[in-house]
């Protein structure tokens, strides 16, 4: 498919009383609903959207994640993001419904089963180029940890790259639908909830990512599966303990 025009038919969204990402999402979904963008059309590049709306790359990526989660678009690695038929999104999960601690715990249970196997497959099938991309994103996370930044976008990308390395597009589809909701700290202040030191919390999470990466680098499927299971199980346990403490304080 050839790229579609940048949907100039609609005026740029007003940013008052809405987040920047919501404004981008509303503009694009409006273009789809009015037929300016049709299923199969390729969305403008990140740079084009940034220029059109006067927003950062982070805002654009958040908007794309919302579009994916709502079943409006699908990203094809190395090609771009395309409008899809919403009726075809039969497996779609409403990411916006994942709002409470219990919701996030339930999602972690699903991810433990799914992503542990994805890590196994990634270690068995990954290419050198995919390992290089993983290393690049891991480095970005490490730099963010050094700055005390949560690095949510890089964390999402790390898990998506592992899904892509499986060679099975359905792993990618499901994680793409969920967007940033796959990262608990994107919705919940984990260190604050657990009365934890933010720097120490991020450092622990980063070490778990390193263990996953090293197993995939060695092409060790069993170690990759175990490292991913450990990482997500630890996330679930940290959140479960924080939730229990919160309930005790409120009792």
TrEMBL record:
<protein>
    <submittedName>
        <fullName>FadR family transcriptional regulator</fullName>
    </submittedName>
</protein>
<dbReference type="InterPro" id="IPR000524">
    <property type="entry name" value="Tscrpt_reg_HTH_GntR"/>
</dbReference>
<dbReference type="InterPro" id="IPR008920">
    <property type="entry name" value="TF_FadR/GntR_C"/>
</dbReference>
<keyword id="KW-0805">Transcription regulation</keyword>
<keyword id="KW-0238">DNA-binding</keyword>
<dbReference type="InterPro" id="IPR036390">
    <property type="entry name" value="WH_DNA-bd_sf"/>
</dbReference>
<dbReference type="Pfam" id="PF00392">
    <property type="entry name" value="GntR"/>
</dbReference>
<dbReference type="InterPro" id="IPR036388">
    <property type="entry name" value="WH-like_DNA-bd_sf"/>
</dbReference>
<dbReference type="Pfam" id="PF07729">
    <property type="entry name" value="FCD"/>
</dbReference>
<feature type="domain" description="HTH gntR-type">
    <location>
        <begin position="18"/>
        <end position="86"/>
    </location>
</feature>
<keyword id="KW-0804">Transcription</keyword>
<dbReference type="InterPro" id="IPR011711">
    <property type="entry name" value="GntR_C"/>
</dbReference>
């Amino acid at each position: 498919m050839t790229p579609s025009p940048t949907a100039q038919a609609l005026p740029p969204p007003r940013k008052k009383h809405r987040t920047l990402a919501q404004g981008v999402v509303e503009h694009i979904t409006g273009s789809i609903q009015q037929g300016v963008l049709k299923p199969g059309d390729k969305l403008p590049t990140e740079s084009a959207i940034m220029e059109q709306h006067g927003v950062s790359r982070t805002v654009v990526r958040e908007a794309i994640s919302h579009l994916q989660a709502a079943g409006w678009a699908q990203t094809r690695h190395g090609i771009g993001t395309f409008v899809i038929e919403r009726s075809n999104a039969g497996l779609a999960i409403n990411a916006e419904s994942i709002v409470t601690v219990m919701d996030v715990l339930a999602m972690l249970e699903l991810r433990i089963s799914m992503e542990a196997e994805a890590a196994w497959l990634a270690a068995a099938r990954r290419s050198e180029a995919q390992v290089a991309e993983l290393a690049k994103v891991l480095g970005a996370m490490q730099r963010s940890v050094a700055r005390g930044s949560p690095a949510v976008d890089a964390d999402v990308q790390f898990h998506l790259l592992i899904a892509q390395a499986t060679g099975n597009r359905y792993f990618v589809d499901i994680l793409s639908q969920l967007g940033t909701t796959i990262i608990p700290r994107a919705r919940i202040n984990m260190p604050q909830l657990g009365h934890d030191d933010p720097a120490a919390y991020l450092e622990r999470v980063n070490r778990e990512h390193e263990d996953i990466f090293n197993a995939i680098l060695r092409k060790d499927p069993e170690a990759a599966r175990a490292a991913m299971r450990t990482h997500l199980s630890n996330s679930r346990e940290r959140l479960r303990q924080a939730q229990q403490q919160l309930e005790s304080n409120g009792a």
